[in-house]
Amino acid sequence: MQTLRHATFADIPDLCALLAQLFGQEVEFVADAATQARGLQRILEAPGGGDILVLTEDNRPVGMVSLLYLTSTALGSRVALLEDMVVAPGQRGRGCGGQLLEAAIDCARQRGCRRITLLTDGHNLDAQRFYRQHGFSGSDMKVMRLMLD
């Protein structure tokens, strides 16, 4: 039986394993369980700063999505950054991703957000198609980064 809920500190090891699968698909990131655990813990410790939603099957996480909250001066309101979304390979194609994404959208609305922004790899056409099917559209904005370490 699948259940959708907010993550707890006890979920961190399983979420790190899911993130390792996600980062294995991405060109710019490398999985490091200690680093991911630190990031997940920071989100869970910061009330109002973000949410991590977990889809479980038999109490074991099989998918996750995280939202981080910011204030947009352009909109004069709170907005969300969809930071990580991943479903375990054995669970894909069963509607788990759609269930997680719809829960994230509902969560962002409940938190007063007027927009959700996400990044996906340019070559990941499946992910882009998935997000478009759920109402997301492309943007003319260009992502730029400056690593500070």
The CATH superfamily label reads Gcn5-related N-acetyltransferase (GNAT)
Query: Poorly predicted ranges (pLDDT <50, ≥5 residues)?
Result: none
What count of domains describes the coordinates?
Answer: 1
Just give the CATH class.
Alpha Beta
Helix content: 25-40%
What share of residues are in beta strands? Answer: 25-35%
Give a verbal description of the structure.
The chain is of the alpha+beta class. It has a single domain (2-133), classed as Aminopeptidase (3-Layer(aba) Sandwich). It is built from four helices and five strands; from the N terminus they run βααβββαβα. The chain has helices at residues 12-25, 33-45, 96-110, 125-133, and strands at residues 2-6, 50-57, 60-72, 77-87, 113-118. The protein has a five-stranded mixed β-sheet, with helices on both faces. Strand 3 (60-72) and strand 4 form a beta hairpin. The protein is globular. It starts with a strand and ends in a 16-residue tail after the last helix.
